[in-house]
Amino acid sequence: MYYRTNIERTYENEILASEKATAFTGTVVPDGVEADAEGRKVVHRGSLMAASGKVVAVTVTEGTSGGTPTVSFSEEPAGILKEAVDVTNGAEPGAFLVEGYVIGERLPLGVDYTEAIGAAIHEKLPEIKFR
Q1: Is 110 helix (H, G, I), strand (E, B) or coil?
Q2: C-alpha torsion angle, residues 20, 22, 27, 33 (rounded to 10)
Q3: Which of 3, 63, 92, 126 is deepest in the core (most CB within 10 A)?
Q4: Beta strands at 128-130 and 92-102: parallel, antiparallel or unpaired
Q5: Which secondary-structure segment (H or E) carries 119?
Q6: What is the pLDDT of residues 35-86, one digit of tens each?
Q7: How far, rounded to the nearest angstrom, does the alpha carbon of residue 107 sit from its chain's CA centroid?
Q8: Could you give phi then psi for residue 103, rounded to 5 degrees?
Q9: Residues in a beta bridge with 79
């Protein structure tokens, strides 16, 4: 077995606001995941996941005349990834959080978390609550 040393480890913030949470197993695929400087493809904890196993991209369109922003998703979210998953060598199993309290500001959504984003996620995943 090959063991590589000198790999830079990254710390990921805890996303759960409570220890009580429900997660189901899903497949995480490497499609659209960028490799880091070490060549690893890691899907980070807190990523929105689709049933297809792809990371769901969040897009926010500002409302006209100061109206409420519109939040859209690249795919229908099926859960939030509970722990980081390394998909460098292909698809891997992951835990998709479907029920529990989450700290929204710590989710790696690619955009700054707002209450509008939290409401849109809660609409798609009604058992996910934000603190």
Answers
A1: coil
A2: -50
A3: 92
A4: parallel
A5: helix 115-124
A6: 988 888 999 999 999 999 999 999 998 876 667 788 999 999 999 999 999 9
A7: 6
A8: -90, 105
A9: 49
5 band by pLDDT with thresholds 50, 70 and 90: low
Q: Is 90 exceeded by the pLDDT of residue 120?
A: yes
Nearest to 98 by CA among 6, 26, 5, 11: 26
Give whole-number Cα distances, 120 to 23, 41, 59, 60, 83, in Å.
Answer: 20, 28, 11, 10, 22
The pTM (predicted TM-score) of the whole model is 0.87
Contact 43, 28 (CB under 8 A): yes
Locate tokens 């929204």: which residue? 104
Q: Decide: 98 and 27 in contact? Cβ < 8 Å.
A: no
Assess whether pLDDT exceeds 80 at residue 2. Answer: no
Beta strands (DSSP E) in the chain are: 16-28, 42-43, 48-50, 58-61, 70-73, 77-81, 85-86, 92-102, 128-130
